[in-house]
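Quick check before the chapter quiz. The format below is the same one you will see on the exam, so make sure you can read both the input and the output lines.
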Amino acid sequence: MTPAEPKPKPCCAASRARSASSPAQPAPASGAASAAPARPSIAFPAARFLMGTDYARANHGDGEGPVRPVALSPYAIDTCPVTNADFAAFVEATGYLTEAERFGDSFVFQGQIAPERYDELVIDTLAAAPWWCLVRGACWRAPEGPGSSIDARMTHPAVHVSWNDAMAYAAWSGATLPTEAQWEYAARGGLEQKLYPWGDELEPQGRHLCNVWQGEFPELNTLDDGFAATCPVDAFPPNGHGLYSVTGNTWEWCLDVWGVDFTAAPSRDPQGPATGEARVMKGGSFLCHASYCNRYRPAARTRNTPDSAASNIGFRCARPVG
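Here is the expected output.
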């Protein structure tokens, strides 16, 4: 008898609960776009592709399907997520404070917190996902709270960055966030309706091609891919379009408001619903695993509120061409 496929569980992303005590939205970043250092990017001509999936193990309710033809206008997208070095340059040029810094806390995966400091750092945990800990002082420059540092992680993706923070960085750099359709087309690497950017096997011939959870989430991480948390953005080979880190490592914010009501009708440059409380994230993270969350596929998607941040959420930028 063939064992049943594991039922997908709620996604591994922590959301901040809005409250009256929430700080004001961050002020727009100051500084000319020319102050932003140029980042490698890939320019795409007008293109068409099949977006979404009818994969049997897609996360029902996430709006992964139906498969639908999408036409895109020319655009460019960064080859890598924004790194700690990139974000540090932004903060140095503008004096920007992220929302995590304004709130005074952010979400950190429990396995990233030193056991002897747990009681000192952890303010609370999420009832539905107790491995998500709200850590006092956690932010992009102190990813696990006071005493932690990015000094040895300058080529890792910047994390603890909200959608609002990502938009501020993008504006400073003369860019924006990619739409979900732009992100997905780029992430697919030129392959049509494959599960991953390289094909249909997660580990072809036993080779690790992305940074995701190894073992049984959340108790056991065997580290078979070499990383317990984030890794350098170019630690694994790029996809067929030359993009790095589109699978695992960190979730990436997209421009779109979250929605799930899609049809099979063709569309051009879709951007999601006009209004809504959440924004789309794509790509999965180092916490994704088939036993818990199989959203580390180009078609997979999840959502979060625009003021939320965590140790597994980052972003990359895009810009129009022509």
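If your answer matched, good. Residues 1-10, 30-34 have pLDDT under 50 and may be disordered.
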